[in-house]
Specification:
single chain; alpha/beta
């Protein structure tokens, strides 16, 4: 009777195709970091077989893939943090991103089992990782001369504000980045999901779809359906109790919600122990029998309570969708002051993933 996360592999494949159709001349790094945004690292690696390569955030994620038998080309977006990780990356034939001087020093000082393939990252305005624009040519030439480096595959950057189609920052970043790489004449990797769907001028040799693969819009206020995407995860549970309370009855911890009239209240078997956000306020929608009903009262570790006044025929055992098919994760995220990324990543291991559509 507890919650489960249904994972639609056919939707994941569809969303990858949507990325490829948006920039058909580009190769694809399918981003499966953070356990594929909560959808399952190994599951996504298998389902996204039409991608040209996979991308993770950290070396240990890449090791997990390699130990599971994955032989795909594999990019590590944060690169290596120390000499031990450098050795692991080379041993497991990972491609790493070089984004800071400390990595260069490690490469200069250490022998490696086999020369490293890498990408160079430039900070074009995200101000997070990457060399400054004025350092690019020097770092590029340095990497070419290091015995530990087999090849520099190209130069990448990251768009900070592509989720807002009206923000001029993306155009400013492109105006900075494109002349730099043109001078070198190398391959490029620019757009994330928002860049792919919203900024055709950000096309590059490689693209890095992430959240769009899992069926959520990357845009502020957007919905997956508007972008031709299909939800991959449907988090669902069931009604486990229905009670009738008089006007004024307090519901749940602290009695933060009081019944405005005599009403039925349902209990759903899901809570923050499963990854449903504890700070979800009263009024956050769930889907019961294909109709929205509002959350009332505080979220508990294992349960939430919902207003059943619009569902007089609701019964114990009825399926409740927390987000997914019929109820966009983006909508729920807006109610809780978050983003779909956090909802997906927050679903705990307590919740079984049930895949279908493969």
């Amino acid at each position: 009777m507890g919650p489960r996360a249904l994972i639609d592999l056919s939707a994941m494949k569809h969303n990858l195709l949507r990325a490829k159709e948006s920039m058909p001349d580009s190769k694809v790094f399918a981003v499966i970091k953070a356990d594929a945004y909560g959808h399952g690292l190994l599951r996504a690696a298998t389902a996204l077989d039409e991608a040209d390569a996979l991308a993770v955030a950290r070396v240990d994620e890449g090791i997990r893939l390699r130990e599971a038998g994955c032989t795909r080309e594999l990019l590590v977006l944060e690169g290596f943090f120390n000499a031990d990780e450098l050795q692991q990356a080379t041993r497991h034939q990972m491609i790493v991103v070089i984004h800071q001087a400390e990595q260069l020093e490690i490469l200069k000082q250490r022998e490696v089992e086999s020369p490293l393939r890498c990408w160079l990252k430039v900070d074009s305005g995200m101000h997070r990782l990457g060399f400054q624009s004025g350092e690019l040519l020097e770092v590029w030439n340095t990497l070419q001369q290091l015995s530990a480096v087999a090849s520099v595959e190209g130069v990448m950057t990251h768009l900070s504000s592509a989720d807002d189609r009206n923000d001029a920052k993306t155009a400013e970043q492109l105006d900075l980045f494109l002349p730099l790489v043109k001078e070198i004449g190398c391959a490029t990797a620019i757009p994330n999901s928002a860049g792919i769907l919203g900024w055709p001028e950000a096309h590059s040799d490689w693209i890095r779809p992430g959240i769009m693969l899992y069926g959520a819009s990357p845009f502020i206020g957007g919905r997956a359906e508007q972008e031709g995407l299909r939800p991959v995860m449907t988090l669902e549970s069931r009604l486990i109790a229905i009670s009738h309370y008089p006007e004024g009855a307090p519901i749940g911890y602290g009695g933060t919600y009081c019944c405005p009239e005599a009403m039925s209240v349902g209990v759903v078997a899901v809570g923050y122990g499963d990854g449903y956000p504890r700070h979800a306020p009263s009024g956050t929608p769930v889907l019961l029998n294909s109709r929205r009903v509002p959350l009332v009262g505080r979220v508990s570790m294992d349960m939430i309570t919902v207003d059943l006044r619009s569902q007089p025929h609701a019964a114990v055992g009825d399926v409740v969708v927390l987000w997914g098919r019929g109820l966009p994760a983006e909508e729920v995220a807006e109610h809780v002051g978050s983003i779909s990324y956090e909802l997906f990543c927050g679903v705990t291991n307590r919740v079984p993933r049930v895949e279908f559509g493969g």
